[in-house]
């Protein structure tokens, strides 16, 4: 079962067999790592730091070397890959080789697809070289029939073919963009999406998802794409709105088979919450809306060149924006929205109830539009703005997630203090700061030091199943064992949702 290793700062990922050394993986990735002693583990010049995940336990030779060296450093020539891991060489060498992640035209590939409500992402792996290509993201064309899941279900009652065709075209476009010049079709495609998205893609009857009690439709595990030219496997759904994307996230994190008490929060238009504890699994779905993905926001959009990923401000340096790509700021990505609201909250420009006020250090950046709505410019160039309505949209999204977390923990009889890890997933998850999501009340305050962003775990869970087909059996097992927590059945749900609108830390 191959495992991915990512090398920073290049971001190149390759999939290798467990037991492969980091140095061997680096050769596949085209990342230069110096090994002066030829791999005998005596010079210590090939040190790498583990940024995420873990490597296999060191052997005696490596252990003796790292005991003499700097803490937290492993030897690339000896350390072996055993699961998902991200590393960075301690000594960065100039690379004369290309780190272009475009796959060769003759590559044999597999593809993982995350079929999101707002956007569709795909990523391919060259099976022979093990090299992972860049992630391709396209809009979900179903958005023309409504921004949220329920709108699309209603639209499908009248014409399901329109929704099916839109999803099919979005998926094939994402796959084509991920392959980008690869001449032959992929050997395997695995798709993960929430229940409604998978059902609409398959052309299944979604009537049962239109009203309580929400009943998941029968979704075929294999469907035809591109007029029958390509087959794709669908991740199994759990039930209700808990779909294959949640199963893929759980597969990617490995939390179901861990002894730790772990919470997973997948932030998206349809946010999912999962808790693994004491050998059991609880899951829930929260209708958060598109704010976490940067949509439904005045100056928002998907993470693309020009998207603001985070924002800071200080008296000494003014605005500092982290912008994707070498471009001027043009819009707020989901993480940029969260970062900007958290910043304004700290500066006193946003009250706990979400009300914006110009009183404070950024008073000159505030203005009222012709529609009477208060706005603030984000950044010195004033090309990106945040409005009072944007703050309200984020409040609604975060309230849905907070209530979902509270109800899942309550159903399992687990407190926030008992959590060992909190995984935050989503297409923009890696851009989130733990302090921001804690201070806004998206995750419990006691989890501040336990939060770990895992990025688009749905996409990479699907990709893992495409690379290693045996994982499909694990996916079915995960789906079968989950306990589905229905949020809307709690008589206190609405009152809890209103209370959770406050932008403040919370504990459970």
Describe this structure in words.
It is a single chain. This protein is of the alpha/beta class. The chain is built from 11 helices and 23 strands. Strands 8-7-6-9-11-10 form a 6-stranded mixed sheet, with helices on both faces. Strands 22-21-12-13-14-23 form a 6-stranded mixed sheet, sandwiched between helices. A 5-stranded mixed sheet has the order 2-1-5-3-4. A hairpin with a 3-residue loop joins strand 15 and strand 16. The longest helix is centred in the N-terminal third of the chain and has 31 residues. It is globular and about 70 Å long.
Largest sheet report:
6 strands, mixed
| Side-by-side strand order of the widest sheet | 8-7-6-9-11-10
User: How many strand elements?
Assistant: 23
Structural class by SSE content: alpha/beta
Calculate the terminal CA-CA distance, rounded to whole Å. Answer: 38 Å
In short:
The chain is an alpha/beta fold and 508 residues long. It contains 11 helices and 23 strands.
Top keywords for this entry?
508 residues, alpha/beta, six-stranded mixed sheet, 11 helices, 23 strands, 25% strand
SSE order and pairing:
Elements: E1 3-7, E2 12-16, H1 22-29, E3 47-55, H2 60-68, E4 73-75, E5 81-89, E6 109-115, E7 119-126, E8 136-139, H3 149-179, E9 188-193, H4 195-202, E10 222-225, E11 230-234, H5 244-253, E12 262-266, E13 270-277, E14 280-287, E15 307-314, E16 318-323, E17 331-332, H6 334-346, E18 366-368, E19 374-378, E20 384-387, H7 388-412, E21 421-425, H8 434-439, E22 451-455, H9 457-467, H10 471-481, E23 483-484, H11 493-499
Parallel strand pairs: 1-5, 6-9, 9-11, 12-21, 14-23, 15-17, 21-22
Antiparallel strand pairs: 1-2, 3-4, 3-5, 6-7, 7-8, 10-11, 12-13, 13-14, 15-16, 18-19, 19-20
Helix pairs in contact: 3-4, 5-9, 5-10, 7-11
